[in-house]
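Methods — Computational structure assignment.
A single polypeptide chain was analysed. Its primary sequence is given first, followed by the predicted tertiary structure written as structure tokens.
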Amino acid sequence: MNTEHPLLREALQRLRIGTLTPMQQASLQYARDARDLILLSPTGSGKTLAFLLPLLLSLRPDTDHVQVLILVPSRELALQVDSVFRKMTTRWGVVCCYGGHPIAEEKKSLLGTRPAVVVGTPGRILDHLSKGNLDAGSVTTLVIDEFDKSLELGFQEEMAEIMDNLPALKRRMLISATDAEEIPLFTGIGRSVRLDFLQETGGDSRLQLRQVCSPAKDKLHTLFRLLCTWGTDSSIVFCNHRDAVDRVSRSLTEHGLYNEAFHGGMEQPDRERALYKFRNGSCQVLVATDLAARGLDIPEVGHIVHYHLPVSEEAFTHRNGRTARWMATGTSYLLLHPEETIPAYISPVPESYIIPEQVPRPVRPQWTTLYISKGKKDKLNKVDIAGLLYKKGNLSRDEVGQIDVKDHYAFVAVRTRKLNQLLTLIRGEKIKGMKVLVEVAE
């Protein structure tokens, strides 16, 4: 498929992507194919773009009905897919639906903006269908992202009910980094094209595996020393349980190593804030459950630490997929105490990594995230925030990082070394004539 098609060319320009991977090109070749598509490709290989680009060529401009439904297993993945589609800035609208925030705003968008694309988690999509907020009778294309997870037993009843609400469905696209043992009959998968990039050579060579021995069964001290050796490099520490995440995060904080916790027991705004800080560099360590192993688009994660051994080979694969993404390299560490053994599916046995006797003290992040108390609903945009920081805060362009404007608030990353001076200079200043609260995001 020629990427010179105007829709594709413009979308790629807005995403600042010059060339597609072989996997993405292969997916595009079947954009006009009537058959169902099953796409398997490693985590971090750009699967979101691999199904969004073909969708652009299938969307019709002459209807205001929902044409595409994208189902995902987690809120974070829903937000990621929504973000990538919006960045392409097409003529078609998208609405993102997930639990953990008011359903009323989603209802207003579904009924008011008449989106062509709806992305969401199965439970929230069912809510909208049952309440009449979403008419899926016109949906012709269904995408199930991370289908091995979305079609697990816990989701199957919801997924089957959703399928019953798609009478006009013509094509299905199933996407994942790990294959499923079987695909349930209710999905209706018929004549299909199967693109399997899981066995492509070259990906594994970019990921190095190491084992680290913890002399004590309680690995906290060893973890702290390991993280200190990496300075400002970004790292994700995986634990198997929420309470373990809280305990590890609290311990690292007490020892002066700034980090953020991330798990399903947290409120959605707290999870979004933690991810935002990690993405923009104002937090170098994310302590998380396997919730962070899927659907997070976080570039340049240098290190993965398995504080607890993963519960399965599939979990191990997805955890490691947070690093060595696209063409980058990364390292994955198994943190083991003397009574633990390396699972049989990890072969060959990873080399040992010895932590130096002397490790540096924790390094303060180079960036700090600021919270701003106004957002899109207040007509605030990125240009307004940047203008305040440049003109009133005397910051240069390289001292202002990522800006993210939500409906009712915004986040912006600024250089830590300029923080105190900046807050002094902008104290009491207004944006667009509005009084705003600007403070360090907690």
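Note: The two ends are 47 Å apart (CA to CA).
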